[in-house]
Structures are given as C-alpha cells and as structure tokens.
Amino acid sequence: MSSDTASLLRAIEADLLTIAIEAKKGSAIKESAERCSSDIRALVAKAVPSVATLSTTLPPISALPPDILSSLKAQWLQPFLIASNHVDAPRKVLIVSLGAIQRLISAGGILLCDYQSISRVLEIQVRFLYPFTILLLATPLTNYSTLPISPLG
Q1: CA angle centred on 104, ends 91 and 66, rounded to 5°
Q2: What is the pLDDT of residues 133-148, one digit of tens each?
C-alpha cells in the first residue's frame, strides 16, 4: 500500500509539472502548479523526514498524520481545478487536469468540501466542450491515443 502513496504522489507531481510547462508563462495555472509541487515535496519531507524523494517507503495516504493529510488534500487539487475552470484552457492542460482529478477521487485524496468545485468544473466543461469532454470522460484517462479526435491540440 505504501507504493500506492508513492505512485499517487509521483503521478500528481508529474501532472503538476506537465500543466506548469503547458500553461502560459505567468498564468495562475502555472504559478499554482509550481507552488503546489514544491508544497507537496515539503509536506512529504515533513511527514517522512527520511525520504528525500518520492520513493516506495512512504506510508499509505490514510497513515499520514492528519494535519499533513489535510494539507495535501487541500492543496493538490487546486491547480487542477484552476486549469479546468476555463473553457479556453489548452486541451493538454485540460486532459491532464481532469485525469489528475479522477486519480485523486479514486485514491480518496479529496476533501468532502471539494466535490462541489469538481462538479462545477465538470459542468463548465460539459456545457461548453460537450463532445470532447464526453469522449474524454468516457475514455480511460490513461490511454488518450484511443480518442477518435486529437485531444492534444
């Protein structure tokens, strides 16, 4: 189970890096992703001081101290919500963000109060980008190449 935590944190950090690279320089998306990535590393180092990198020695998410877990849950969703909150978000940023949100939900890494924000973001995307969003949400988010349209641009 500890490798699940490490895998989740590595995936989230990779997603944050991707949206930071793809977002426009100086944008709220880029700044939020970069800040969140460094905050995650700092919180993990505080929770598990012997871990210099995100390795498989991390405890399960549920075993993290409540204050660290609460901080992680409060922070790691925000960049993805910000990125998904606009109808003009670059498609790659949108795909990565929706995939990360799905991953966090599946892992139980979302605060109860954030589900309303997730619902609002999905409503925005479905309302304005209906065909693309439906295909994206209906397709396993780990294999974008199977989409009948090009989601990356």
Answers
A1: 145
A2: 556 555 554 444 444 4
Any residues with CB less than 8 A from the CB of 121 and at least 6 apart, and which?
Answer: 81, 84, 85, 101
CA–CA separation, 94 vs 108, rounded Å?
21
Residue 120: how many other CB atoms lie within 10 Å: 13
At 50, list the tokens.
């012997």
Q: In the chain, what are the domain boundaries? A: 2-146
Q: Which residue positions in the chain have pLDDT lower than 70?
A: 1-3, 47-63, 129-153
| C-alpha pair distances (Å), 69 with each of 45, 47, 110, 119 | 13, 9, 10, 22
Taking the C-alpha atoms of residue 55 and residue 72, their distance in angstroms, rounded to an integer, is: 17
CA-based diameter of the chain, in Å?
47
pTM: predicted TM-score of the whole model, two decimal places:
0.72
